[in-house]
Inverse folding.
């Protein structure tokens, strides 16, 4: 198993990694495509994605939205909930196969075989054979994601979107808002909490599992982001279907990556760059978040969560001096149709909403009255799970839940519900800490961008952030070229069998509008998916078609501000740019970007 690859830098060039080194070119080109498997292999890419969003003008414009007026003066909970609702309203979760296309297992295995042990990869990554979360594999993960119509060698790219690409989904047919997959949403959340919520990056940890990505926010009791939602500690233990989905990853999967401003730690790599004290702190805080004492309320929530045990209980409802009885499962069913629940605060309101015919005048046979359990639990504060279980074993003798094994199973599951043990990367690593970027909530966007640029010649996180940000003025174009011509299959499928002339006209006629500001540029499939692009971007889309579909390898690109010329086989394809770029890529330079 190889250690994480570190970029090699030339001493005589500013911001120019040595791209004659295969590992360096592979990693930096991955900063443009940012697929899930690339981030898995190169975990140092994850936080640069967060920083690239922090540098985006789109995110800073959120501060001026009336929705966030004076949000910096509000409480922590208000800030987080305001950001959550904004994300809920403006973005949807998207994990289709069409957006970023497909690749082949053998292609990716060949690409990464020098960086990572393939047997270990198959045990840790869902695309290569991992089966840690039994929920997904019980329903057949390939069918779940629509892969069942392809051979087992076909896997999705699932590229992580920048905030620009997430916003651009509104240009895509069938989308009315922005969109992104789980890593995109976790990176967006982390950046938004910093920029809009003024929550320090030191308090934000990005957590990656083989099938999911989320953030732990180290503030007060802690909080998890889960796709578009947030999960507080109270929500984690409320037993609802939403919390069940939120719990799934940390209950069933190994945590493969924890990424932080100070660095990262990876489940399979021996080296870790995260500050060791920060990782200790995170581990302890996350464990505290995932642990709760048993109370009557938590027990009710557990029964809501584990539906197989709810039929052992009934509720005695006293109304108008009469006692009525109702099964707990019926009460939980009514919760789905109202904003009220069976918690003590809203219990009476919920019961009054239940149809009278659901109640019985006599106790349900062989069921425990839940109020008796609640009274016992409130009095038994400090008792162990074993002691409480023995009470149940004795109390349930006269009910249909008197099966000893069933009750033991109930309490075994209850113990797991009360204390989830996250499968975190081992602390037994070779910690190679580097200086963390001094990004703080008092800096404005320009100051942060200046800091990243200044640190990029000595700090790889800063340098990778410029690549993920597409800061083409200050970075080498070789990795962009490699990603553009090797990892953009969607546009190739769409343009397959079209003539060169028809393809050129189709691309030329697209709106001359980039989804990226300033001199930042989109990859070919971003141009195709969102139906627009600047002249420089259109030229790369055309180059992708000529190189892969028409097998024309004699390419060169000349950009002189508004004038863009792509030359192939002595034919010029011209486009118009509104960016202020002056750049020339010879055929040799383009070829050298692709041969490794």
């Amino acid at each position: 198993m190889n250690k994480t690859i570190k970029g090699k830098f030339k001493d005589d060039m500013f911001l120019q990694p040595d791209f004659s080194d295969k590992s360096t070119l592979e990693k930096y080109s991955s900063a443009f495509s940012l697929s899930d498997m690339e981030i898995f292999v190169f975990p140092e890419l994850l936080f640069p994605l967060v920083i690239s969003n922090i540098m985006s003008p789109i995110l800073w414009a959120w501060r001026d939205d009336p929705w966030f007026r004076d949000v910096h003066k509000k409480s922590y909970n208000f800030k987080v909930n305001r950001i959550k609702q904004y994300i809920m309203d403006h973005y949807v979760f998207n994990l289709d196969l069409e957006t970023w296309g497909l690749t082949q297992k053998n292609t990716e295995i060949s690409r990464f075989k020098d960086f990572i042990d393939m047997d270990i990869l198959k045990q840790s990554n869902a695309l290569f054979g991992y089966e840690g979360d039994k929920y997904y594999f019980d329903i057949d993960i390939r069918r779940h994601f629509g892969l069942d119509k392809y051979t087992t060698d076909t896997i999705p790219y699932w590229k992580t979107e920048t905030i620009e690409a997430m916003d651009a989904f509104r240009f895509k047919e069938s989308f009315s808002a922005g969109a992104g997959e789980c890593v995109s949403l976790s990176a967006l959340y982390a950046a938004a909490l910093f920029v809009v919520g003024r929550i320090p990056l030191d308090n934000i940890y990005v957590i990656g599992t083989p099938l999911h990505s989320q953030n732990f926010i180290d503030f007060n009791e802690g909080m998890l982001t889960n796709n578009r939602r947030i999960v507080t500690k109270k929500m984690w233990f409320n037993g609802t279907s939403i919390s069940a989905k939120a719990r799934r990853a940390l209950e069933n999967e190994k945590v493969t990556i924890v990424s932080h401003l100070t660095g990262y730690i990876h489940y399979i790599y021996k080296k870790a760059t995260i500050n060791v004290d920060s990782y200790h702190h995170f581990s302890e805080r996350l464990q505290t978040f995932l642990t709760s004492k048993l109370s009557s309320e938590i027990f009710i929530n557990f029964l809501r969560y584990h539906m197989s045990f709810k039929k052992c209980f009934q509720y005695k409802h006293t109304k108008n001096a009469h006692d009525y009885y109702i099964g707990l499962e019926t009460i939980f069913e009514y919760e789905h149709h109202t904003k009220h629940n069976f918690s003590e605060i809203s219990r009476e309101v919920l019961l009054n909403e239940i149809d009278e015919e659901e109640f019985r005048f006599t106790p349900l046979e062989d069921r425990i009255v839940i109020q008796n359990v609640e009274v016992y639990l409130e009095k038994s504060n400090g008792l162990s799970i074993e002691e409480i279980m023995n009470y149940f074993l004795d109390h349930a003798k006269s009910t249909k839940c008197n099966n000893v094994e069933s009750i033991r199973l109930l309490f075994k599951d209850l113990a797991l519900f009360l204390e989830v043990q996250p499968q975190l990367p081992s602390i037994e690593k070779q910690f190679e800490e580097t200086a963390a970027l001094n990004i703080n909530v008092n800096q404005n966007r320009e100051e942060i961008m200046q800091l990243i640029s200044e640190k990029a010649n000595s700090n790889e996180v800063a340098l990778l952030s410029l690549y993920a940000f597409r800061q083409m003025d200050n970075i080498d174009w070789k990795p962009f070229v490699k990603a553009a011509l090797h990892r953009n299959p969607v546009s190739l499928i769409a343009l397959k069998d079209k003539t060169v002339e028809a393809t050129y006209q189709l691309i030329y006629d697209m709106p001359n509008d980039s989804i990226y500001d300033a001199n930042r540029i989109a990859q070919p499939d971003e141009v195709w998916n969102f139906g627009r692009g600047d002249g420089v971007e259109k030229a790369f889309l055309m180059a992708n078609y000529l190189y892969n579909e028409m097998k024309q390898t004699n390419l060169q690109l000349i950009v002189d501000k508004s004038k863009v010329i792509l030359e192939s086989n002595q034919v010029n394809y011209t486009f118009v740019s509104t960016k202020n770029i002056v750049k020339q890529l010879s055929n040799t330079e383009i070829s050298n970007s692709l041969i490794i």
